[in-house]
Amino acid sequence: MMMTLRVLYFASLREAVGRANEELTLPEGVGTVGQLRDFLAARGEGWDALAQGRNVRAARNQRMARAEEGIEAGDEIAFFPPVTGG
Amino acid sequence: MSVSVQEADFDVGAEIAALSAGRLDVGAVASFVGLVRDANDGSSVSAMTLEHYPGMTERALEEIVAEAGRRWQLLAVRVIHRHGALLPGERIVFVGVAGAHRGESFAACEFIMDYLKTRAPFWKREQTPEGARWVDARESDDKAVGRWGPMGEPAASE
User: Fold this and answer.
1) Which of A11, A56, A59 sits opposite B123 (nearest CB)?
2) Given B56, B123, B153, which is nearest A81 (Cβ)?
């Protein structure tokens, strides 16, 4: 059974956390997109770019997701700043 | 209904022509072309790089086009968005909509651009005399998309 998440970071957030992606074992007590964000924001330097109050958007399995959306092992979760295409 | 995310430029005339090629029911083709400007937020811009989220980008654009197709009677839609390195004057995005009458073509074209601006995962980084910087999202873009009402799925994690 797959117990890992794939987490992606884009644009200024990718630069702040110093990586574009990682495989992560689903941490204990993390059941939503918002809880994963809080877990990552607590990692220390650079990761505060994900802290509450920062303007961060998220996607779960390549669809925009709210903080309260549930996550499961095997998911692809992405964090990024508000989009600026067009 | 067709979406492309590509580094290459595109031929606006050929794309517009293709929207009504081989059919006689099209009465109105509306199109939008977005270009790289040489200035933004008080600084000159010498180059731009567009980052995107491969996979989600195509899916988001396809969903936006599908939603436009539910709201208006459309005969053909084409969306092309470039990524990678771009210079001022270069084309970034094309939206073309074919319908029977101009009302739905104009409206759907604007709708697709407004949703693309706030939903499609692209990020612009521009080169200025003060250094490279990520472009900030505009509040006016959120307002522009708000006038179309909800799309039936969440836009943000906050």
Assistant:
1) A11
2) B123
Q: Is the pLDDT of residue B158 over 80?
A: no
Q: Which of residues 53-82 of A touch B (CB under 8 A)?
A: 55-59, 62-67, 69, 78-82
Q: Assign B149 a pLDDT band (cuts: 50, 70, 90).
A: confident
pTM reported for the whole predicted model: 0.93
Q: What's the N-to-C CA distance of chain B in angstroms?
A: 32
Q: Choose the CATH number for A3-80 among 3.40.50.2020, 3.10.20.30, 3.40.50.2000, 3.40.50.300.
A: 3.10.20.30
Q: For residue B80, what are the β-bridge partners?
A: B4, B94
Residue for token pair 């988001």? B60
Q: Does A20 touch chain B (CB under 8 A)?
A: no
Domains and CATH numbers, chain B: 2-147 (3.90.1170.40)
- Give residue-wise pLDDT tens across range A12-50: 999 999 999 999 999 899 999 999 999 999 999 999 999
Q: Using alpha carbons, select from B122, B142, B134, B151 the residue that is nearest to residue B34.
A: B122
DSSP B51: E
What letter does residue B89 receive in the DSSP assignment? T
**For the purposes of burial, counting CB atoms within 10 Å of the CB of B117, is it exposed (0-12), middle (13-18) or buried (19 or more)?**
buried
What are the two backbone dihedrals, phi and then psi, of residue B117, each rounded to the nearest 5 degrees? -60, -30
Q: Give me the percent of chain B exceeding a pLDDT of 70.
A: 94
ipTM of this complex prediction, to 2 decimal places: 0.94
